[in-house]
Amino acid sequence: MKFDILTIFPNIFDSYFNxxxxxxxxxxxxxxxxIHNIRDNTTDSHRTVDDTPYGGGPGMLMKIEPIYxxxxxxxxxxxSKIILxxxxxxxxxxxxAKEFSKLDQIVMxxxxxxxxxxxxxxxxxxxxxxxDYVLTNGNIPAMILVDSITRLLPGVLGNEESFKQDSFxxxxxxxxxxxxxxxxxxxxxxxKTIELKIPEILKSGNHKLIKDWQEKxxxxx
Length: 221
Known about the structure:
By secondary structure, this protein is α/β, with parallel strands linked by helices. The chain has helices at residues 14-17, 20-27, 64-72, 94-100, 139-150, 207-216; strands at residues 2-7, 32-37, 50-51, 61-62, 80-91, 105-109, 126-129, 184-189, 192-197.
């Protein structure tokens, strides 16, 4: 899987993509992440990527020319999608993550300022929103897509069944409560010692009863 990310802040991804699962997936060549600096495809000395909108209005819009030129330099596979992050896009969820994980390449356009010249619609396959709120730019949504899709790819997680147990994998169930050592956790509250114990059934060794308990204690979205 190849991820191509178009942005005006190329260094913002360094920390996140060089840690944990994403780092290992790159090292093992399961994924490849390429960051494209839109400013590299401007023509003026100030590397301008934005301008005032026609018809007036607050803020600045990203210009279409440098984004188009950046896209043109990316070699697309047959099984690829170009995605634009926008509040008006389809709400991102686990179903879409599974759908996207079947692709060979995802190109993500990260807007900034008040948005992008609407003529960009001519060159994208899908608009995506990660929620009903406003962000400064599309870089965090890009990280979310890379993370949520990468963990679904074969060979990424140590246990191939791990992602199937995740919240929202097959339906709207979230995860059941989980516990680890110590068996009894003690802490002080209002001068009293409080003990929090794990449910007895989880120590029973009866896998059927444990599974029934887990299913019963899943929460619904």
